[in-house]
Amino acid sequence: MNLLLNLISLLGIAGLCFIAWLGSENKRVIPWNVIFWGIGLQMVIGLIVFVLGSQLVEGLSTLLNSILDASEAGARFLFGGPQSILVADPDFRAGPGPAGRWIARAVGTPFVAVPGDRIGPDNLNPGFAYVLAFRALPQVIFFAGLVSLLYRLNIIQPVVQIFAKIFQKTMGISGAESLSGAANIFVGIESAIAVKPYLLDMTRSELCAILASCFGSIASSVLALYAGFLRPTFPNITGHLVSASLMTIPACFVIAKILVPETDQPKTLGKVPEEPKADKASLPNPMDSLIGGALDGVKMAVGIAAALIAILGMVALVNLVFATLAGFSESDFFLLSWIGNLFQVITLQNILGALFLPLTFLTGVSLEWQELWQSSLLIGRRLLETNIPPYQALAQLNANGEISNRAMLIVSYVLCGFTHFASYGIFVGGLSSLIPSRRSEVASLGFTALWAGTLATLMTGCMAGFFDFGNPAIFGK
């Protein structure tokens, strides 16, 4: 434990607010009330999670992990395993021949022999390593259906109202943006539908706050996707991702209100509107809601897969150009040799890592250069590659002992958000479709809101770093 790092994390909160102020549309208007209460709410949540309620987080993680395990039942039925109809004998063990060994090494991690030289059937795809499409994406479908069912049963709405009232009463923001922000704890851009009747008359500051909370938090449908990567080395990660999502909403309001201060009078100031209620006769039955949500989850899973294929392919293509330039280092011509030596270390990941290095330092992640750089690389990669590759890399680094528990905790909190270019079109396009007459204004706020969400997730990482005193119970170890 290094108390200097905790101090850096605390000062980092002020530093991130100052950075946001430097980009403010109106530097003379500083929302002190939102800043004070927003950071205060984060402190309260952090105190509960890290000091008073570590057992609460462990219990929440246990509950959610059980749900995550249940979510794999359908995938195992479809893609293989002891319960699959594709495997008649539940005790079947795939004994890999030469071709099987080659495929296992080519697709996943190198094959490691075990007694009997057999690969167990507990994997969804016997004989292979973890495959994202078969293990993680089905969980997105399951959770989308589950959330849809819970909404249909009116279980989530009262919780959303409670959080909305807390945000509105403490920070003094409008009821509509409070309601939308609270709904973001459970859903993504769908949260804007809860305040659709008020969107047309919202102020510029309110629209920015709604977009920022979309970028800064994660929808519960992808909670399983991120948690699945870190569970082997961070058993309590599921509860902490819920904590991060809760903690980031006040941070989004703080940063958004600094960047785009409120200078007008919101129409829902002082009250939290009720979510529009549909006619009971027109509501689908619970099973229809479950299936409908799952079908929406299919679209989301396909969208995630498509984005990963396109984005990671483009990143690899650009890095291939850099690698070709790096090959000039063997040239006898001085200028080409100099260019080649320069591009020996230039990749898109390294460029983004360098850009995010000062911000990563403010989280208090580490004072060791290598660990600080690794953390900055992971946080920077999110901007282009989405959260999935960085979370996978974080899990691998921790499993190999190449990154400390503190760094894993802070980076996992920072990565918990949709602050990447792939989500820009989803959120900006989704909100624009609800108020087409203000499309240009929403588009102009898009990158400001993305920046706000990025700073907000970093602020959440600062909070995690401030409250981390090396207690292994935090991690469930």
Automatic annotation (TrEMBL):
<feature type="transmembrane region" description="Helical">
    <location>
        <begin position="6"/>
        <end position="22"/>
    </location>
</feature>
<keyword id="KW-1133">Transmembrane helix</keyword>
<feature type="transmembrane region" description="Helical">
    <location>
        <begin position="334"/>
        <end position="357"/>
    </location>
</feature>
<comment type="similarity">
    <text>Belongs to the concentrative nucleoside transporter (CNT) (TC 2.A.41) family.</text>
</comment>
<feature type="transmembrane region" description="Helical">
    <location>
        <begin position="241"/>
        <end position="260"/>
    </location>
</feature>
<feature type="domain" description="Concentrative nucleoside transporter N-terminal">
    <location>
        <begin position="11"/>
        <end position="81"/>
    </location>
</feature>
<dbReference type="Pfam" id="PF07662">
    <property type="entry name" value="Nucleos_tra2_C"/>
</dbReference>
<keyword id="KW-0472">Membrane</keyword>
<dbReference type="Pfam" id="PF01773">
    <property type="entry name" value="Nucleos_tra2_N"/>
</dbReference>
<feature type="transmembrane region" description="Helical">
    <location>
        <begin position="128"/>
        <end position="151"/>
    </location>
</feature>
<feature type="domain" description="Nucleoside transporter/FeoB GTPase Gate">
    <location>
        <begin position="133"/>
        <end position="230"/>
    </location>
</feature>
<dbReference type="InterPro" id="IPR011642">
    <property type="entry name" value="Gate_dom"/>
</dbReference>
<keyword id="KW-1003">Cell membrane</keyword>
<feature type="transmembrane region" description="Helical">
    <location>
        <begin position="442"/>
        <end position="467"/>
    </location>
</feature>
<feature type="transmembrane region" description="Helical">
    <location>
        <begin position="34"/>
        <end position="57"/>
    </location>
</feature>
<dbReference type="Pfam" id="PF07670">
    <property type="entry name" value="Gate"/>
</dbReference>
<dbReference type="InterPro" id="IPR011657">
    <property type="entry name" value="CNT_C_dom"/>
</dbReference>
<dbReference type="GO" id="GO:0005886">
    <property type="term" value="C:plasma membrane"/>
</dbReference>
<feature type="transmembrane region" description="Helical">
    <location>
        <begin position="410"/>
        <end position="435"/>
    </location>
</feature>
<dbReference type="GO" id="GO:0015293">
    <property type="term" value="F:symporter activity"/>
</dbReference>
<feature type="transmembrane region" description="Helical">
    <location>
        <begin position="300"/>
        <end position="322"/>
    </location>
</feature>
<protein>
    <submittedName>
        <fullName>Na+ dependent nucleoside transporter domain protein</fullName>
    </submittedName>
</protein>
<dbReference type="InterPro" id="IPR008276">
    <property type="entry name" value="C_nuclsd_transpt"/>
</dbReference>
<feature type="transmembrane region" description="Helical">
    <location>
        <begin position="171"/>
        <end position="189"/>
    </location>
</feature>
<feature type="domain" description="Concentrative nucleoside transporter C-terminal">
    <location>
        <begin position="240"/>
        <end position="465"/>
    </location>
</feature>
<dbReference type="InterPro" id="IPR002668">
    <property type="entry name" value="CNT_N_dom"/>
</dbReference>
<feature type="transmembrane region" description="Helical">
    <location>
        <begin position="209"/>
        <end position="229"/>
    </location>
</feature>
<dbReference type="GO" id="GO:0005337">
    <property type="term" value="F:nucleoside transmembrane transporter activity"/>
</dbReference>
<keyword id="KW-0812">Transmembrane</keyword>
